[in-house]
Amino acid sequence: MYADKEKMSAAYGSWKSPITADVVSGAEKLLGGFAVDGEGRVIWLEGRPTEAGRSVLVREATHAGDAAEEITPAEFNVRTLVHEYGGGAFTVSGDVVVFSNYEDQRLYKQSIKGDHVPIALTPDYGAPVVRYADGVIDLHLGCYITVREEPHVLVSGSDFYAFPRLASDGRRMAWIEWKHPNMPWDKSELWVGYLSADGKIEKRVCIAGDDPNMIESPTEPKWSSQGELFFVTDRKSGFWNLYKWVESTNEVQALYPLDAEFTRPSWEFGYSSYAFVEHKGQNNIIACTYRQKGLSYLGILDHVLGSFSLVDLPFTDIYNITSIGSHLYIDGASPRHPLSIMKVSIEENQVAMSGISIIWSSSSLNISEYNAYISSPEIIEFPTKVPGQTAFAYLYLPSNSNYQGFEDEKPPLLVESHGGPTSESGAALNLSIQYWTSRGWAFADVNYGGSSGYSRQYRERLNASWGIVDVDDCCSCAEFLVSTGRVDGERLCITGKSAGGYTTLAALVFRKTFKAGASLFGVADLALLKADMPKFESYYTDSLVGKDESLLYDRSPINFVDKLSCPIILFQGLEDKVVLPEQARKIYAAVKEKGLPVALIEYEGEQHGFRKAENIKHTLEQQMVFFARLIGKFKAADDIIPVHIENFD
User: Which pLDDT band holds residue 1 (cuts at 50, 70, 90)?
Assistant: First the structure.
């Protein structure tokens, strides 16, 4: 399409691009979940960077072409802080929504119809000290069942609970629980409780996770309309697959074994990776999404016949599914399509689509106008430091219809180490990445050993090896791209957020592969992290590093700044409760004292992850100009006023 256009030759990194930091920060909204109301209309939770990160509930328009209806009053912000990461902040039943309000963390009930005035359901404790998430409305008893930060009302005794789900008869409830020192993806249990007439659990039975000879992590329990319980677990194979509970014999049956992941780690509440498709009173059909080798797929499973078929969708990354009748609502994205909610109508034979429409998009842009500047990812598999072992990454090469690099030059490379660390990067359109590639950078988004999406065995590569395997894999990816002649070995940079920020700092301190780095609310001191971790993660470092304090010391970049030999820029939210601001300040002071170029940018009102458009913009621009000034060999095309760099300016 653009082959006949003559390109200008210019230094990689210096290209002009319409994908500006303003476009990136202002165009993309966040999606905090969605549900279907009693009229079959979608309600979604929309995060708005242009409103200081405020999240509001929005209802699908009655008629196509009409504007969607915002139902959250201006003085409310729908967001829960359970486990600090949140998720599951609202529930819809018929024409009623129950939600958590960010400022006071109280639960409110709101009618979707009428004047929308929310009514508080929980007491005012004077501060947001009690938090709620992942609730369900019990229509039989007229009550709300929810996960509470310190639960003891309905069921208690374990350290953590998630996915409370009622059967349609109101007599059985399923839930997930787990105990320290495990994270939910390490080892968890699925329970069913039998409810008395007054709503108390009078009997309970463990469905999965209590066998001492088998480690598994069941999750996402759901009851069909016929009262059958389904769930996802990774028993035996190490892959999260779909299972069904046979209540009469208390046995579980695998529905369709596949070397693929049918869910993802429960960092947040409210995940929904499968849904029942109703047709002529039957619901033997399950629509499900799974990840395999870096891509998502939508499958249609008849769990009675055992048949399975794929549905062709324009998404490479699918996150959640819900349904009403034979209609599916799916949120997903692709390398050229922003995160969206899609309505998919399934044909009567249940194996093909009869219609598809976009209900909501995270971007206000007409992405097709930027096609000439968008780089599509290539999934690469590269050798690790372990002989015969490989890891994975998404490689984005420079792409701009107006420019090409000089013949004797190769592009600089920015490697990103994702957060978690038990998480996964995907191929979805990310304008932050396109900001770099449209200016002439190569970008590698690494799924290092320990990432999800590739089996339990792959996840557990990081056990006792955080700061080693992740660092080695990021270095190996960069070195592989240098050895194959795709990037400039003298201009290798690394960036990461949270746990990815730790990998960034560790790579810069303990290895010599990268020439500069950017850490966004990253961990510099593992002992400090462990001491200040929220309850949810308070034992996480025990499995990732070990219990011995000497291991925490030896893996902490702050203790070995003398080994550092390259510049760093640091970004930190001052209200971060997961990685405290002291982490960034300690590494900044140590690097400054050593005499290396360093900058620290702190943001008022930001927590673990930046939500305000102005801060998202500033962070992106300052990374670009920092790398350009320190190692780039080019001048950034954008008019950016750089922050002061200690030991350089």
Answer: very low
